[in-house]
Write a structure and sequence with these properties.
The protein is mainly alpha-helical. Among the domains are: about 1-90, no CATH class; about 105-160, no CATH class; about 310-425, no CATH class; about 445-575, no CATH class. Helix content is about 55%, strand content about 5%. It contains 28 helices and four strands. The chain has a two-stranded antiparallel sheet with strand order 1-2. Strands 3-4 form a two-stranded antiparallel sheet. A hairpin with a 4-residue loop joins strand 1 (about 50-55) and strand 2. The longest helix has about 40 residues, at about 1-40.
Length: about 575
C-alpha cells in the first residue's frame, strides 16, 4: 500500500514536470507573439511626443507613438532595427527618404553649414535649408549624432527660429543639448521683458519634459500670476529634488512673502537669475560690457534699463556700440547718445575740417550732429555717406546700414535727391521683399505659355496641359527664329518626367548640350547625396530669390532635382522662375 502510494506520488511529480515543460514552451511562443502584438499596437498609438516611421521598400508610414526615437522596419521579413532619428518633417513631405545623408561625408556637411552660417539667406534658400536639415533621417558618415544635432540646433538658435525649436523640442523630448534649447526658449521670453506673454509661452513645452531651468521659470510665472500656493508646492518639490540653489531660494522666498528681505546681489550667470535680481533689488544698478550675455543686453534694452548718465564715459559708450553692432542693443540708442555729446559752436561749424583730428567716437558723433543740422538735401547725403565710411572703418557697419537706408528713403520721398546722387542712393536703400505678381501667360514663348499651368495651377488636368503643350508647340514651330532657352528646357524636362508626351520636334538632348552642369553637383546626384546637394543649392541661391538667378543656374538646379525626383522642390523653382508676372 505504501509502495503504491509512493508510485502515485512519483507519477504525479513526473506529470507535473512534463506539464510545466509543455506550458513553458507554449508560454515562450505566447510571449513572442504578445511582443509582436504590442509593437503593432504601439505603431498606431496617438501620443504626439515621438514619431514612429515604418519603412518598407515601397513607402514610409509615419504615426505618432509613445516610445522614444523612431522604429524603422526596412523589410517586414527581416529583424526590426531600432534607431533614434531626430527632426520635424516626414521625409515624404518633400520627396526625401531616410537616407538623404547616409552617403555623405560629415566633414563636407559641416563645411557646408559653416559657409551657410555666413550667408543671409533669402526666403527660398532658407525654406529649402530648414526643410532639408529638419527632416527625419539617418546619420551621415564621419560625424557623431551629437555633432550633427549641434549643427542644426545652433543654426536655429543663431537665427532665432523659436517656433521650429519649440516644435523640435516637443517632437523629440530626449536629445543631446536639450537643456540648451530649453534655456534658449525661456531666455527669449524673458528677454522681451513681457513676462505675461512669456509665461503663457512657457506652456510651449510638453509637461513630460523636465528641466530645472524651465521649472524655475514656471515657479516664478505662478507667482507672477498670483498662484502662490501652487508655486509653493512646485518650489518645495524642486528643493526636495535638490534642483534649486541658495540664490533662487532667497529670491523666491522673498517673492512668496516668506521672508521680508532679500539680498541686493546681482547675478548675471544666466538671464533668469539676472531678471530676478532686477525685480527684487531696490537700487538695481548694472553696467553691461562687451562680455555680457546677449540675452541680458536684450532684456536691458526691452526693459529700458540701459542708461548713460555720464556722457564722458567713453568706454561705456564703446561697449554700447559693440552691442548695437551685434544686434543686442537698439541701434537707435547709439544715435541718441551721439546727439547728447557736447560740442561747441566752432567745432560744429568746422566739422568737415576737424573731425579727423578727434577720437573716432567723437568724430562720428560730430558728423552725425552736423547731419542733423543740415537743411540741404545734397549736404545731408554727403554727411550720410561720410558716416557710412566712418562706421565701415570702425567695423560697425551693422549699426548704420538700416539707418542710412531709412534716412535716404525720407529724402527720396520729398523728391530732393540730386541727379548725380540718384544711382548711389538707390544702391543703398534696402528694398522690401516683393511678392510674386499675377501670372500673364504668353503662348509665343514656351516656358511662359499655358503649358506651365500644370505647375502654376495644380488643379489643371494633365490632359488639358498636354493639349496646351501641343498647341503652343505648333505656334512656336512656325517661328523659324525661335530660340529654345534654358527655361524652355526646364519646362520640357520636367513635363517629360511627369509623364507628358513631348513633341518630336523638341530635341531635349541636343538643346541640353548648350548648358554645362557642374560635375561636382552631378556626382552628388549620382551618389544619391540628396541632403548635401540640397545644401549646395542653398549656397548657390544664397541671398537671392529664385526669380533673380540666371537661366542656366535655374536649369541645372531643376535638372538635378529631376534626377533625384525631388518634384516638390522642383515645382517651387518652376513656379517662381518661369512664368511672366505683373
Amino acid at each position: 500500500m505504501r509502495l503504491l502510494s509512493s508510485s502515485k506520488y512519483l507519477f504525479l511529480i513526473l506529470l507535473f514536470f512534463f506539464s510545466f515543460s509543455f506550458t513553458y514552451g507554449e508560454e515562450a511562443v505566447d510571449i513572442w507573439k504578445k511582443n509582436k502584438d504590442n509593437n503593432e499596437k504601439q505603431s498606431t498609438s496617438g501620443d504626439t511626443d515621438n514619431i514612429n516611421i515604418k519603412s518598407t521598400n515601397s513607402k514610409i508610414e509615419i504615426s505618432q507613438t509613445s516610445t522614444s526615437g523612431i522604429k524603422i522596419d526596412e523589410n517586414p521579413q527581416e529583424e526590426e532595427i531600432n534607431k533614434s532619428l531626430y527632426g520635424i518633417f516626414d521625409p515624404d513631405e518633400n520627396n526625401f527618404t531616410l537616407d538623404i545623408w547616409t552617403n555623405s561625408n560629415g566633414d563636407e556637411i559641416r563645411d557646408a553649414f559653416n559657409r551657410i552660417n555666413k550667408i543671409k539667406l533669402s526666403k527660398t534658400a532658407e525654406d529649402l535649408f530648414i526643410s532639408t536639415m529638419m527632416t527625419y533621417s539617418y546619420m551621415p558618415k564621419n560625424i557623431s549624432e551629437d555633432k550633427f544635432l549641434d549643427l542644426r540646433i545652433n543654426w536655429l538658435i543663431k537665427n532665432k527660429k523659436d517656433k521650429i525649436l519649440e516644435n523640435f523640442l516637443n517632437k523629440n523630448p530626449s536629445f543631446h543639448n536639450k537643456k540648451k534649447v530649453i534655456q534658449y526658449l525661456v531666455d527669449r521670453n524673458i528677454a522681451k521683458a513681457d513676462i505675461s506673454e512669456g509665461c503663457k509661452k512657457s506652456e510651449f513645452i510638453n509637461k513630460e519634459i523636465q528641466d530645472s531651468y524651465l521649472e524655475k521659470f514656471k515657479i516664478y510665472c505662478l507667482i507672477f500670476n498670483d498662484k502662490k500656493g501652487e508655486a509653493q508646492l512646485v518650489f518645495d518639490l524642486l528643493k526636495e529634488q535638490q534642483l534649486s540653489d541658495k540664490f533662487f531660494n532667497n529670491k523666491i522666498n522673498f517673492l512668496l512673502g516668506i521672508s521680508k528681505k532679500t539680498d541686493e546681489k546681482i547675478r548675471d550667470d544666466n538671464l533668469l537669475n539676472f531678471y530676478l535680481s532686477s525685480i527684487t533689488s531696490k537700487k538695481f544698478d548694472y553696467t553691461p560690457n562687451k562680455k555680457t550675455n546677449k540675452y541680458i543686453w536684450e532684456y536691458l534694452n526691452a526693459a529700458n534699463l540701459i542708461k548713460i548718465e555720464d556722457i564722458t564715459d567713453r568706454e561705456k559708450i564703446k561697449n554700447f556700440e559693440i552691442a548695437a553692432n551685434n544686434n543686442t542693443l537698439k541701434k537707435s540708442k547709439i544715435f541718441e547718445i551721439y546727439s547728447k555729446i557736447p560740442f561747441d559752436l566752432s567745432k560744429l561749424l568746422t566739422a568737415d575740417k576737424i573731425y579727423q583730428s578727434l577720437d573716432e567716437l567723437d568724430s562720428r558723433a560730430l558728423i552725425y550732429q552736423k547731419y542733423l543740422l543740415s537743411d540741404n538735401a545734397a549736404n545731408k547725403i554727403v554727411y550720410l555717406f561720410l558716416l557710412k565710411d566712418m562706421f565701415r572703418k570702425a567695423e560697425y557697419s551693422n549699426i548704420f546700414t538700416e539707418f542710412l537706408s531709412d534716412e535716404l528713403k525720407e529724402i527720396e520721398k520729398k523728391n530732393e535727391i540730386p541727379e548725380n546722387y540718384k544711382e548711389l542712393v538707390s544702391k543703398n536703400i534696402i528694398t522690401e521683399e516683393k511678392k510674386l505678381g499675377k501670372i500673364r501667360y504668353d503662348d509665343k514663348i514656351l516656358h511662359r505659355s499655358r503649358a506651365i499651368r500644370y505647375y502654376t495651377e495644380p488643379d489643371t488636368p494633365s490632359q488639358k496641359s498636354q493639349k496646351d503643350l501641343n498647341n503652343v508647340y505648333k505656334k512656336i514651330k512656325k517661328n523659324k527664329k525661335y530660340f529654345f532657352s534654358a527655361k524652355d528646357l526646364v519646362l520640357v524636362e520636367s513635363l517629360a518626367l511627369d509623364g507628358f508626351l513631348i513633341p518630336k520636334g523638341i530635341d531635349q538632348k541636343q538643346i541640353a548640350k548648350k548648358y554645362i552642369i557642374p560635375k561636382s553637383l552631378l556626382d552628388l546626384a549620382d551618389n544619391k547625396e540628396t541632403g548635401l546637394l540640397a545644401l549646395k543649392f542653398v549656397e548657390i541661391i544664397g541671398e537671392d530669390e529664385i526669380v533673380n538667378l540666371d537661366p542656366e543656374t535655374i536649369y541645372f538646379i531643376t535638372h538635378l532635382l529631376n534626377r533625384l525626383k525631388l518634384k516638390k522642390f522642383r515645382n517651387k523653382v518652376i513656379v517662381a522662375a518661369l512664368p511672366l508676372r505683373d
